[in-house]
Amino acid sequence: MTVQIFLHDGMSFTADIADYNAADLAQKMNDPKIMMIAVGNVIVNKQAIKLIAPVQQQ
Fold first, then answer.
1. Coil, strand or helix at 54
2. CA–CA separation, 55 vs 47, rounded Å?
3. Total Cβ atoms within 10 A of residue 7
4. 39-47 long-range contacts, Cβ below 8 Å, gap at least 24?
5. For residues 4 and 16, is the Cβ–Cβ distance under 8 A?
6. Domain of life, per the record (predicted)?
7. For 26, which DSSP code?
């Protein structure tokens, strides 16, 4: 699945996640011990993420 990641600074990018699971990703985002998370093939500081949303396939 392809997702689009929007950051607080206005930047956005897409990443491919083979086994996308929103609940698992939310759990990682809410873990205070984790600073960086892997979203597909991109590593991001979780504090910079504003929104992660699936891209609609046509």
1. strand
2. 22
3. 15
4. 39/3, 39/5, 39/15, 40/3, 40/15, 40/16, 41/15, 41/16, 42/5, 42/13, 42/15, 44/5, 44/7
5. no
6. Bacteria
7. H
In this predicted structure, the answer to whether residue 23 has a pLDDT above a threshold of 90 is yes
For residue 49, give the nearest of 40, 36, 34, 32 by alpha carbon: 36
Count of positions (residues) in the chain: 58
Total domains, the chain? 1
Q: Which domain holds residue 50?
A: 2-54
**pLDDT for 56:** 82
Separation of alpha carbons 45 and 47, rounded Å? 5
Sign (positive or negative) of CA dihedral 19, 55, 32, 38: positive
On the CB side of 27, how many CA atoms lie within 13 Å of its CA?
5
